[in-house]
Specification:
CATH class of the largest domain: Mainly Alpha
CATH topology of the largest domain: Arc Repressor Mutant, subunit A
CATH architecture of the largest domain: Orthogonal Bundle
Largest sheet: 5 strands, mixed
Helix content: 40-55%
Distance between the termini: 10 Å
Shape: globular
Order of helices and strands: HHHHHHEEHHHEEEHEHEH
Structural class: alpha/beta
Number of helices: 12
Radius of gyration: 19 Å
Strand order of the largest sheet: 3-4-5-6-7
Length: 260
């Protein structure tokens, strides 16, 4: 499942027919993307109009925390210029904007592949154009877990939504302010609130993370007794002993049906 989620974070949204997912990830990146760079670039240029401003902001979104002010800072543009470009990118369907009442709005790609492109391909085009793929490989290896955290979170949100289908979910997504964030924030029709976190790391999740979530909820003034945690690499025995009605623990295996 780790391999499937990794490949989904790169190729999700493409329409290239069946991809041989038995191949190593970077081998697929090299064969399907880097070697066909010019053709794919032309398709993306047609979609975005090839405007440098758009590409700078999209790279800022792909490499940052998705907040508008972070993307604009990375792209070195004012809020006024950035907001106008974002409105146009939303209109053509490249990204979508999620509003926040307590912090900067967030921007998300409508395609996992486009996010990968603007994180690892577009900023390094000179080397790729010249047939040198080493820098792409190095950046991908160094930022792999960080990059995959977002699609892992999005898949986890979908899983929670499906698992609660009998409780009439009214809202399911992330919740953030200027300082903190919950990966998962759910409100049901009966006003139940569920908070959750996703950890795409090689470490097992410990009880201290549950305590941290409860403290974070207090700090953000969110009332909830129900928590969910998704982990790439499982949980400590102490945390597993607390699993019950108000604490659900999930691993990559639980996301199999969503990825497929």
């Amino acid at each position: 499942m780790e391999d499937a989620i990794e490949k989904f974070s790169i190729f999700g949204g493409v329409e290239w027919g069946r991809i041989d997912t038995s191949k190593p990830t970077f081998e697929l990146i090299e064969k399907l993307i880097l070697e066909d760079y010019r053709y794919i670039r032309n398709d993306i240029t047609e979609l975005t109009g090839g405007m440098p401003l758009y590409h700078s902001i999209l790279t800022g979104i792909a490499l940052g925390d998705a907040k508008t002010h972070t993307a604009y800072k990375r792209a070195n543009v004012s809020k006024e210029v950035g907001d106008k470009a974002v409105a146009e990118l939303c209109e053509i369907g490249v990204i979508k904007l999620k509003k926040s009442k307590k912090s900067s709005d967030k921007l998300y790609f409508n395609s996992q592949f486009l996010r990968f492109w603007f994180a690892f391909i577009s900023p390094l085009f000179k080397g790729i154009r010249d047939g040198d793929f080493k820098e792409v490989q190095k950046r991908f290896i160094n930022r792999q877990n960080e990059f995959i955290h977002l699609p892992f979170t999005q898949l986890s949100q979908e899983f929670v939504k499906l698992s609660l289908k009998d409780e009439r979910v009214m809202e399911c997504g992330s919740y953030w302010d200027d300082k903190d964030e919950f990966d998962i924030y759910v409100k049901t029709k009966d006003k139940k609130t569920i908070l959750g976190m996703c950890k795409y790391t090689n470490s097992k999740i410990k009880k201290s993370e549950l305590n941290r979530m409860k403290l974070l909820a207090d700090n953000m003034e969110i009332e909830s007794e129900s928590f969910v945690i998704f982990s790439k690499n499982g949980f400590s025995k102490e945390l597993k002993s607390l699993k019950g009605e108000n604490l659900k623990l999930y691993t990559l295996k639980n996301l199999k049906s969503i990825v497929e």
